[in-house]
Design goal:
With 192 residues, the chain is α/β, with parallel strands linked by helices. It has one domain: Rossmann fold (3-Layer(aba) Sandwich), CATH 3.40.50.300. Helix content is 40%, strand content 12%. The protein has a 5-stranded parallel β-sheet, with helices on both faces. Helix 4 packs across helix 5. The protein is globular and about 45 Å long.
Length: 192
């Protein structure tokens, strides 16, 4: 995928993914940079999806439906990015990315073997940059108590391990958004 840049913003609920995304979008719009913004996967319809309010309060899918779900996502990504080769848009921002199922499979009602899941995820377009929204677990938990405190702490550890061998930026404070956005623009070669 030549010249296509994907930024994947990951982190637990309450870590500031959406707030940071809005700030990044505002800066990109101000600079007149073409981009597309998605939650988790490319949205081919104009239909708005409802936010999940109790992510861990759902029944897991069967293994076959989990397999079909991740294959559906893969096909969706592959077709979407194939079509984007014919577009002027080269920057794509995702608030969450399919790899999130490695950290929080319960949220996605996912029930597939870990090795098979990792294999399939390798077939997805690889983000140019991972943004890991992290920080003080007490502050994050107080912002959004959608999972237990114990689960939140576990997720923070898993996200830190996940980005370790990738091109990533950790963002741990709302006050550092502007500085972090400038670092991202530098990495994308989009800064003044």
């Amino acid at each position: 995928m030549t010249n296509i840049r994907i930024i994947a913003i990951i982190g637990p609920d309450g870590s500031g993914k959406t707030t940071f995304s809005k700030q990044l979008i505002k800066k990109l719009s101000k600079k007149k940079i073409l981009f597309k913004y998605f939650h988790l996967k490319p949205n081919v319809s104009k239909k708005k999806t409802k936010p999940v309010t109790n992510p861990h309060d759902q029944v897991p899918r069967s293994k076959i439906f989990s397999f079909l779900k991740i294959c559906y996502w893969l096909i969706l990504f592959r077709i979407f990015f194939f079509l984007m080769h014919f577009s002027q848009i080269r920057l794509f921002i995702f608030d969450r990315y399919p790899h999130d199922i490695l950290i929080d499979k319960i949220r996605y009602r996912f029930n597939l073997n870990l090795n098979l899941t990792k294999f399939i995820l390798k077939l997805f377009p690889k983000p140019f940059l991972w943004i890991n929204m992290t920080g003080n677990e007490n502050h994050i938990w107080n912002r959004k108590k959608e999972v237990s405190f114990k689960v939140l702490k576990s997720q923070l550890r898993k996200y830190r391990r996940f980005v370790k061998n990738k091109k990533f930026i950790n963002i741990s404070s709302l006050e550092r958004y502007e500085k972090s956005i400038n670092i991202i623009l530098d990495k994308l070669k989009l800064h003044d």
